Amino acid sequence: MSWFSSGVPAVALGLVRRMKGSARAAVLLCLLSALGTGVAAQQQTPSEDELRCMYCIEVIRAEIDLQHHMISAADGAAGSSEVPATREQWIKTSAELLQGLAKLEGVLYRLQAYMLPRIPALDSLALAAAIREGDEDFQESKLVANRCAVECDAPPATSESQQACSASCGNNPVLTRVTACESPTWLPR
Q1: Side-chain half-sphere of 8: how many Cα atoms within 13 Å?
Q2: Which CA distances in Å does 153 have to 38, 59, 103?
Q3: Of 102, 96, 117, 99, which Cα lies nearest the Cα of 50?
Q4: What b-and-e string marks burial along 81-120, b requiring 16 or more CB atoms within 10 Å of the CB?
Q5: CA dist., res. 179 & res. 152, Å (int)
Q6: DSSP per residue over 31-97, as a string?
Q7: Are 24 and 16 contacting, i.e. CB atoms less than 8 angstroms apart?
Q8: Where are the domains of the chain?
Q9: Is residue 115 within 8 Å of 54, Cβ to Cβ?
Q10: CB atoms inside a 10 Å sphere around CB 183
Q11: pLDDT tens, residue by residue, 86-132
């Protein structure tokens, strides 16, 4: 009896659907790897570029989720605003967020297209670790960005002090790693 005919994939995929975020991605990655090569096959150590891709896939996926929430909030604010100028500003914000979303989806597609044929031959534990690191860095980057927003907008904030504060906050290594995922220059064209 093969793995497929035993119904294990259906049960496993059912469990994966109920999971969230990086846990789901890591389990799905392990399942794909096992399906593609057989559990007993020798897997290669991923290159730095392959690990960076898996890290960035998780970061971009999380950014896309956040972008969806922000678009929904902007649309809700536009719909509930009674002041035409405010409504227009929210509509403009939503349009800008939609453009950003399209860019992120394009980046995610490139990363996934690069990695999909490679995953079955690569060590799934190393790839899962890169996914977890991407999730952890994204969560930390949100905390840093929120803290910086509060600190940089604290009174008495002048335009110059806000720019200096933003520049110093932007010098964070986690923010640099996460932001680098939006432009994967290491991928072949």
Answers
A1: 10
A2: 54, 26, 28
A3: 117
A4: eeeeeeeeebbebbeebeebbeebeebbebbeebbeebbb
A5: 20
A6: HHHHHHH-TTS--BPPPHHHHHHHHHHHHHHHHHHHHHHHHHHHHHHHHH--SHHHHHHHHHHHHHH
A7: yes
A8: 10-131
A9: yes
A10: 11
A11: 999 999 999 999 999 999 999 999 999 999 999 999 999 999 999 99
Distances (CA, A) of 79 to 70, 99, 188: 14, 20, 43
Tell me how far apart the alpha carbons of residues 167 and 161 are, in angstroms, rounded to a whole number: 10
The string of pLDDT tens digits covering residues 174-188 is 999 999 999 999 888
- Amino acid letter, 86: T
Q: Which two tokens stand for residue 126?
A: 């190393």
pTM of the model: 0.75
For residues 29 and 119, is the Cβ–Cβ distance under 8 A? yes
Asked if 50 and 118 touch (Cβ cutoff 8 Å), the reply is yes
Tokens 């453009």 map to which residue?
Answer: 99
Dig out the tokens for 185 from the structure: 């220059």
